[in-house]
Amino acid sequence: MNTVSAGGAGFAECMVEGRDLVTPVPLERWDLDCLDAPREVLDSNMLRFGAFAADVAAFDAGGFRLARAEAAAMDPQARALLHVVTKARQVSPPWPMGSQY
Q1: How far apart are CA 73 and CA 93, in angstroms?
Q2: Distance CA 3, CA 23 (A)
Q3: What confidence tens digit (pLDDT) does each residue in 41-94 have?
Q4: Nearest alpha-carbon partner for 69 in 82, 59, 81
Q5: All residues at 6 or more sequence positions from 45 whose CB lies less than 8 Å from its CB, including other chains
Q6: Which of 29, 14, 22, 28 is CA-nearest to residue 45?
Q7: 17 vs 8, 10, 40, 51, 56, CA distance in Å?
Q8: Which single residue of 11, 57, 80, 89 has CA 20 to 30 Å from 63?
Q9: Can you give the three-state secondary structure of the chain, one letter per residue?
C-alpha cells in the first residue's frame, strides 16, 4: 500500500516519484456495510478510496501530555500536526536573545 507515515515522512519522495497515494480504504478505518448513508453515496468512490497515513494509532500521547482517551478522540490530522510541529521546533534554531516573539 502506498502510504506516508503519520508524521509526513516519505511524502516528499512520493511527490517527486509521482506516486499515487490513493488506495482502497483500509478495513480498520470503516466498514461500508455499517454506514448509514444514501445508496448513491455508498456506491460512489467517495467512501471507497482515499489517501491515508500509515500507523496513525502509533501516536505518543504521553509525549504530548495527553490522556489516552483524549488522544483517541483526536482527529488523526491533528495528531500528525502536533508531531510535525514538534519535529520542526526540534530542528529549528533557537530564538535570538531579546527577541519579542
Answers
A1: 33
A2: 9
A3: 877 777 788 887 777 667 788 888 999 889 888 888 888 888 888 888 888 877
A4: 59
A5: none
A6: 22
A7: 16, 11, 34, 16, 23
A8: 11
A9: CCCEECCCCCHHHHHHHCCCCEEECCCCCCCHHHCCCCHHHHCCHHHCEEECEECCCCCCCHHHCCCHHHHHHCCHHHHHHHHHHHHHHHHCCCCCCCCCC
- Terminal Cα-to-Cα distance of the chain (whole angstroms): 42
CB 25 within 8 A of CB 45: no
Kindly list the domain boundaries of the chain, sorted by start residue.
4-91
pLDDT at 100 over 60: yes
Residue type for 16, please? V
Q: What is the pTM of this model?
A: 0.51
